[in-house]
Amino acid sequence: MENFLVKLHVISFMFSIYSLPLTLALQLGFYSSSCPNAENIVRQIVQQRFNGDRSVPAALLRMHFHDCFVRGCDASILIDSTNNNQTEKVAGANGTVREYTLIDQIKAALEQSCRQTVSCADIITLATRDAVALAGGPRYNVPTGRLDGLISRASEVNLPGPSSTVSQVQQSFGARGLSLNDMVVLLGAHTIGVSHCNFFQDRLSNFQGSGAPDPTMDRALANRLSGLCGANPNANPSTFLDQNTSFVFDNEFYNQIRKNRGILKIDQELALDTLSARFVSSLAGNNNLFRQSFVNAMIKLGNIQGNGGEIRRNCRRRN
After folding, report:
1. Quick one: which of 172, 214, 219, 270 is 20 to 30 A from 73 by CA?
2. Residue 225: pLDDT over 50
3. SUPFAM superfamilies, per this entry (predicted)?
4. Does 53 carry a binding-site annotation?
5. Contact at 8 Å (CB) between 127 and 104?
6. Quick one: pLDDT at residue 43?
7. Predicted TM-score of the model (pTM)
8. 72 annotated as ligand-binding
9. How many domains does the chain have?
């Protein structure tokens, strides 16, 4: 009987190992032996791109978030569509995602250095981290070892929208193992982001069919944005989500939304909803708290389990 219990315990232990999420395979310095210069290659190419365009950090943050929220962090957002399959890249929510060419450039350099060793999923994660630091944000280490996904479908892209409520967005984040505070901090990446008029124009003149602007938006800001968005009916211009330190990764976004200067409805709701208002106030008054909280949340985001199965030679298609 004792031997049976010992065997049962061993079987139970082994089952618990195999049942652990794939994220536990990630580790710091995963490529230290297989491709020692991998992280330096990523950093150098992101630096070169940033030198020519300071908006790159915002673009990479958006790509990283949109990738991880669909099938986990598996670079499924990078796969091009075919005649037989419309991929995530062409979904409406991903229409403004960009910097695919930058990922291609990094991948090409890594393939020259270490053939089929560094995954596209890790490239997105590392490039985003390095871009955040270039924008004045925190420098931090991220574990690597992700695999690239084999599946990408536009029909699976279901991201929280700019007009969602705090509770709706919280539910979406919670389904992916992220807390309310993680949500508030990750939306703080809007401190270097932009939005096109079509995502907030309803707030400027006919909010929810009222025939008037959204009363929660600063009137001077609403007037300015009305001029921007109405200047050319055929255009869809953009504006910074942080109206003050627009290219600097800091906590100013929270100070802006506390002054009713949030551009997107969800951003403004963060400062108004009792679920999030207190934490927003803390972040607005403490940049170090924002920086550390952001690092923790980004690592959690990057650890969302993907369904990867290979290391792509070309990030735009399966091997």
Report:
1. 270
2. yes
3. Heme-dependent peroxidases
4. no
5. no
6. 98
7. 0.90
8. yes
9. 2
Nearest one of 244, 59, 92 to 162, comparing CA atoms: 92
19 labelled ligand-binding: no
Distances (CA, A) of 265 to 19, 33, 145, 165, 254: 40, 47, 37, 8, 14
| Marked catalytic residue, from 9, 64, 66, 196 | 66
Q: Distance of alpha carbon 276 from its chain centroid, rounded?
A: 20
Residue 88 marked as a ligand binder = yes
Per residue in 28-51, pLDDT (tens digit) is: 999 999 999 999 999 999 999 999
pLDDT in tens, 48-101: 999 999 999 999 999 999 999 999 999 999 999 999 999 999 999 999 999 999
Ramachandran bin of 250, using left for φ above 0, alpha for ψ from -120 to 50, beta for the remaining angles: beta
Write down the pLDDT at residue 25. 81
Verify whether residue 66 is a known catalytic residue: yes
Q: Which domain holds residue 217?
A: 166-300
Query: Would the annotation count 57 as a binding residue?
Result: no
Residues 208 and 286 in one domain: yes
Say yes or no to pLDDT of 308 above 90: no
Answer yes or no: are the C-beta atoms of 113 and 35 closer than 8 Å.
yes
- Which residues are bridge partners to 263 per DSSP? none
User: For residue 149, what are the contacts with CB-CB under 8 A and spacing of at least 6?
Assistant: 71, 72, 74, 75, 76, 79, 121, 306, 307, 308, 309
Examine the domain organization and report whether 213 and 154 are in the same domain. Answer: no
Measured CA distances, 143 to 60, 162, 208, 229 (Å): 18, 30, 44, 42
